[in-house]
Write a structure and sequence with these properties.
By secondary structure, this protein is mainly alpha-helical. It has helices at residues 16-46, 63-73, 78-91, 97-104, 111-124, 132-135, 140-147, 167-175, 179-188, 197-204, 208-220, 238-245, 256-273, 280-293, 295-299; strands at residues 195-196, 225-228, 232-235. 58% of the residues lie in helices and 3% in strands.
């Protein structure tokens, strides 16, 4: 992991404040990275990642968010990148290319090449033509070589979908990859709470017009319930669905894609901050700006 000694600031300019601020930044980066990597390994273990940790994931796993942060953190732990490509090679059809693209827009620009490589893995190894648009690149030939590299070891198997935390993928397997399966996973994970189309849209990462059409159709089909208040709201009966799915407890929805986007934004900023002097004031201002930009990551699940 990078450290403050890699800064491009001349030694003579490293004041006591500079050193203390960068030391704090390094510690925050280390803690956030290690905690995030632990969460990723725990989630991968529920989705067929070979050799991953045996701790159980208790909340609904967001597969596109898991893939994106794993690729981003592969700069710190390469095995995450290898595992992600191997898992996509066998399970790409359970992922939404549109949603992956939507969520990737919240990540640093450096993620573009990672997404291209992953899409090429899905096309070449996964034989999934849905990814062809994302797989296009101006330097396609060199990227294609990288996409099939390190393919001599099995690091992932197709998920069984029996793990409660794999509920979203299980619903996609049953009803198809798209807004309706993701909406149902979200509503079930909120323990029967009512939600507007706007709230659902923010949670699952699809545009609100498409979400509104989907939930109206699901309501007409009596798959979910709806009610008119100030705005139309929707809910799903988690107890009824729990019996149908034969699972003892529906996993909670934890807005992982918003949390993971915050992690990527903070680590990307911290990496660039090492290249210049940093004061306590600048650190506090940036922290406040990051919090405001990613407020839903903290507020939706009451993390303050």
């Amino acid at each position: 992991m990078p450290n403050s000694t890699s800064s491009g600031v001349p030694p003579g300019e490293k004041t006591e404040e500079y050193q203390r601020t960068h030391l704090l930044l390094d510690r925050l980066t280390m803690v956030l990275t290690e905690a995030s990597v632990e969460v990723l390994w725990t989630q991968w273990s529920a989705l067929g990642g070979a050799g991953t940790r045996k701790r159980s994931a208790h909340s609904t796993i967001d597969p596109e968010a898991l893939v994106l942060l794993s690729l981003f953190l592969s700069q710190y732990e390469r095995r995450l990148g290898d595992l992600t490509h191997d898992w996509v090679a066998v399970s790409s059809k359970l992922l939404s290319t549109q949603r992956l693209k939507n969520l990737a827009s919240a990540y640093p620009d450096s993620m573009r090449s990672h997404v291209v490589l992953l899409a090429q893995t899905a096309v070449i190894r996964g034989k999934d033509s849905r990814w062809k648009t994302l797989a296009r690149s101006s330097s396609q030939d060199s990227l294609l070589i990288k996409a099939v590299a390190r393919n001599n070891k099995v690091r992932a198997v197709r998920p069984s979908l029996i793990e409660p935390a794999a509920l979203l993928l299980r619903l996609r397997q049953a009803f198809g990859v798209g807004i309706k399966a993701d909406t149902l996973a979200f509503l079930l994970g909120t323990e029967g709470a009512w939600a507007t189309a706007r709230v659902i849209s923010a949670a699952i990462g699809y545009n609100i017009a498409a979400v509104r059409r989907a939930v109206d159709e699901m309501s007409i089909a009596r798959i979910i319930a709806s009610a008119d208040d100030t705005a139309t709201v929707y809910r799903a009966d988690s107890r009824a669905w729990g019996g149908l799915l034969q699972t003892p407890q529906i996993p909670a929805w934890r807005s992982w894609h918003e949390r993971f986007a915050f992690v990527a934004a903070f680590l990307d900023w911290a990496e660039h901050a090492r290249e210049r002097p940093l004061t306590w004031y600048a650190l506090s201002v940036k922290g406040r700006d990051l919090f405001e930009a990613h407020r839903p990551a903290f507020e939706r699940n009451h993390v303050f």
